Known about the structure:
Elements: E1 5-7, E2 13-15, H1 35-62, H2 75-91, H3 97-108, H4 112-129, H5 150-161, H6 169-176, H7 182-212, H8 223-232, H9 246-249, H10 252-268, E3 296-308, E4 333-341, E5 345-346, E6 352-354, H11 366-385, E7 389-395, E8 428-432, E9 435-439, H12 456-463, E10 476-480, E11 483-486, H13 497-502, H14 505-508, H15 513-520, E12 524-527, H16 538-551, H17 557-569, H18 573-591, H19 596-604
Helix pairs in contact: 1-2, 2-3, 2-4, 3-4, 5-7, 7-8, 11-15, 16-17, 18-19
Amino acid sequence: xxxxxxxxxxxxxxxxxxxxxxxxxxxxxxxxxxxxxxxxxxxxxxxxxxxxxxxxxxxxxxxxxxxxxxxxxxxxxxxxxxxxxxxxxxxxxxxxxxxxxxxxxxxxxxxxxxxxxxxxxxxxxxxxxxxxxxxxxxxxxxxxxxxxxxxxxxxxxxxxxxxxxxxxxxxxxxxxxxxxxxxxxxxxxxxxxxxxxxxxxxxxxxxxxxxxxxxxxxxxxxxxxxxxxxxxxxxxxxxxxxxxxxxxxxxxxxxxxxxxxxxxxxxxxxxxxxxxxxxxxxxxxxxxxxxxxxxxxxxxxxxxxxxxxxxxxxxxxxxxxxxxxxxxxxxxxxxxxxxxxxxxxxxxxxxxxxxxxxxxxxxxxxxxxxxxxxxxxxxxxxxxxxxxxxxxxxxxxxxxxxxxxxxxxxxxxxxxxxxxxxxxxxxxxxxxxxxxxxxxxxxxxxxxxxxxxxxxxxxxxxxxxxxxxxxxxxxxxxxxxxxxxxxxxxxxxxxxxxxxxxxxxxxxxxxxxxxxxxxxxxxxxxxxxxxxxxxxxxxxxxxxxxxxxxxxxxxxxxxxxxxxxxxxxxxxxxxxxxxxxxxxxxxxxxxxxxxxxxxxxxxxxxxxxxxxxxxxxxxxxxxx
Length: 624
């Protein structure tokens, strides 16, 4: 804007001053950190990030466990190698990013200009997120696959889990039960994965599934395609080893039992439970709310294990490919029934060993365990701990451990009428006008018709005023030619004599023999949920014992008998405490409502050491 002027007498223009002056020139702004230093630090930071990203991708490509889409020769692996080359040229050869990316594109087989731009994008994403680029090939909305149809997926999954693809069902059954020797099991597994399952799936698709959905395949389905479909459905090639039982683990009744019975029972004993800090398992966690008259509770884990004389190392050093000569079959074996706890470790005096087999000491059963529990386990625990401690026994939920006493009030053991082949049951009781009335289950010795004989269902119901005319012994539903299925409706209460007795309070409150022995001795019995071996920390103990036996195996039964006590005593109590803390983390995961897979991932998040043997979950690092 021009400055206004006036003409003076001399004729020259004179500027008029309105009081507005031009601001003086500003001084150069002084920064706390010079711009060149900021730029230099930014360059150093980018270089450090690129160097760290280079190390990570080199480790990924060198790892044998790394998995890429379509394998190590696929497109994703090729892109990963391009990222590695680009970062190598930038970090170690000090080239500019554009030049390095274009050179990397040419080296891996991409176009120089377009490939260079793509590699720069992939490299930036890898530095920021450590995520490899994924290919969009085959993902166009017009591309359709039968596996995208939910109905087809359901049928396919049902067929694969039904084991109808098996060429030799008997051998498959032996394999799944772990009866095959390791070498034969390994060969059979390779045969199953490479031939039997793909061929069975191929035949099922071409003969049954495709015609049902009105589709035909001109050249059929190749074994390679069948294997890819197996992988997409979640099947994978892996070695035969023990682990979590996923098939029954998430069954509705099993989950209900875990959430409604087991976890609340463990939570109830928590205020008095002896625990050790995960940071230092030699230090016991104090119990501030323990009353003077209350006893501390110690978890005592019980389980059984078998070991065979020929169960040695699966791998060994050999001279120039020479195969060592090993004895055939598993050999003679020992059965162990033991308990461990976090306070003293393995209870040696409570151990029970037998040579199992038809021609030897027979086989272990629930009655033997009840005798061991009453004569060894409980007395030894009380001797080792004293009167100030109470045991909480973790018992496997097996058929033998859940067996009832001979005289237990079980309606299915009774006849309908008096006498006959039926056991003499213990006295029962029922409520009459709010008063508990005792009832004998056998007639007196001076009875004129049935002296000393069991009364049977009908007489018991008559004495309880529950009998009605034409009442049957038990329900017979779903009658078939090959037999009859006994079944009552879920909501029925008086459909048959057996259901009426089952709902009586004395029959309904009947406990297994093992639980009666433990509770009569003043201790706590907690049955584990079915298929939940990860909640019993003695399973990890067996893994350590078997490892010791394999390392010292001489393939003789005498050597096995000699090594067994040493193997049991070789596990330190500090390791047992870590295993107990690990099972507590599993319980915490299940309390959050997580399933088996999610709970396993939750436990792995706090791992300090990962194990791969005998049903092991990683070690935990959280407070109990």
